[in-house]
Design brief:
six-stranded antiparallel sheet, 3 domains, 14% helix, alpha+beta, single chain, five-stranded antiparallel sheet
């Protein structure tokens, strides 16, 4: 535990370490609370919080007040108090002291994931950083980030975060205390009207409007598990938890409930996170049978079995068949017309994961295009070279996927009378 205790009233004990960094001690972990710019084109730099940051002649700087667990994430509240004999407030300044800010942070890494605005609404950290950038020109952008005295909203903050400021459970109660895994991420879209064919598009309307994530930007998903309950599908790379890139909303299995789609270049996997249409919440424990929030599984290319029967080729005897993971070099390569072909590269699951690793996939559309009862999700490669068609199980897990050229994609959709959706995919 850190060298100096700040407060220990809840499930989290706040301390400082020898560097002066603020540490959240939770379930045996020592988490330095820090901000990292993970935006596309961002600096990638990390800043570690210290007590009194931002102090000047009129104010003491931001000082920790409390930290605890709410809806499966850490909540950190700090206050900036005025030095009364020196402090003066100008109406032109965006907020008046004393003022508070409220951050959320990862219970695995301590990385800040978002902020509660003075409206009481949550905002993803990438949106917060965009707001800070704009504040260099427009001071008013700062105002909403801080719960300032000019608006007399201290009581509102104390009401909304009463369990953080005056917790009923403490870190000594039990390390097994569990918190809700249902997280508010969206507002209900009262104007939504379902597509008559059951189609959905990331550029179209959905039953809810996501407020916690921004399309094209990475975020932290602390509690996402695979079907079997393994956190991040067993991936333990440090970068994985904070590398979930939000792609948009799709109904991946045709049940009318939309899921937030994420891709992860660190783990080379993707995620569906179903959002409750009436509450705007994601339940991160909804990963097992009948669930819809999980790291999507890995499938076996069905053409692999055919290749095993015909010596590495399809049944026509001339077309190389895909090979499975772990294939020997002797079986991995075949020669066709003098050209050495890598059969592993023909495995659509291998190519799928390679594209995830290089952040080369953009989710576009979903529907049962050929009316066979199997819902499909269309992706476009970011480099424009191909389209990926993933076929889904009824529970939202994946059956199989295959790549198509643009002409093959157009031909397939046109043959099934779905010309109208092509513009949403290209």
């Amino acid at each position: 535990m850190g060298t100096s205790t700040i407060e220990s009233n809840g499930l989290i004990t706040l301390t400082t370490d020898s560097n002066g960094y603020i540490i959240a001690n939770y379930n045996g972990l020592e988490l330095p609370i820090h901000l990292k710019d993970t935006r596309t084109g961002g600096t990638g730099q990390s800043t570690y919080l210290t007590s009194g940051i931002g102090n000047y002649s009129g104010a003491y700087g931001w000082t920790p007040v409390a930290a605890d667990v709410l809806d499966g994430v850490g909540i950190y509240i700090a206050i900036n108090n005025p030095i009364t004999e020196y402090y003066s407030y100008s109406e032109g300044f965006p907020y008046k002291l004393p003022a508070y800010y409220v951050y959320t942070f990862s219970l695995e890494s301590g990385q800040i994931t978002g902020s509660y605005l003075d409206t009481g609404e949550f905002e993803d950290i990438n949106k917060v950083l965009d707001r800070v950038d704009r504040a260099a020109t427009y001071d008013f952008e700062y105002d909403i980030l801080y719960w300032g005295a000019e608006e007399n909203i201290e009581n509102k903050l104390k009401s909304q975060f009463s369990e953080i400021l005056s917790p009923t459970s403490t870190s000594s109660d039990s390390s097994s205390s569990s918190s809700s895994t249902e997280v508010q991420v969206a507002d209900v879209n009262s104007s939504y009207s379902a597509d008559s064919y059951g189609f959905s598009s990331v550029s179209g309307s959905a039953p809810v409007t996501i407020t916690a994530y921004t399309i094209g930007q990475e975020t932290t998903l602390d509690s996402i598990k695979d079907y079997d309950g393994s956190l991040h599908a067993g991936d333990n790379l440090a970068a994985t938890a904070s590398s979930y890139k939000y792609q948009g909303m799709l109904d991946v299995n045709g049940d009318g409930v939309f899921a937030a789609i994420f891709t992860n270049k660190s783990s080379k996997r993707w995620v569906t996170a179903k959002v409750d249409s009436t509450t705007g919440q994601i339940d991160f424990d909804d990963n097992g049978a009948g669930g819809g929030t999980r790291v999507v599984g890995i499938y076996e290319d069905p053409l692999i079995a055919e290749g095993e029967l015909y010596g590495g080729f399809l049944s026509d005897g001339t077309t190389p068949a895909p090979a499975n993971f772990g294939v020997s070099d002797a079986d991995r390569y075949v020669v066709v017309n003098g050209e050495r072909i890598d059969r592993l590269a023909l495995n659509s699951q291998v190519r799928f994961q390679n594209d995830l690793e290089i952040d080369n996939l953009v989710a576009k559309h979903a529907g049962d295009y050929d009316s066979d009862g199997v819902h499909e999700v269309y992706w476009k490669t970011a480099d424009g070279s191909a389209y990926l068609r993933s076929l889904m199980h009824a529970d939202g897990n994946i059956r199989y996927a295959n790549y198509q050229s643009e002409s093959q994609m157009r031909e397939y959709l046109a043959a099934n009378g779905d010309l109208s959706v092509i513009s949403d995919i290209v």
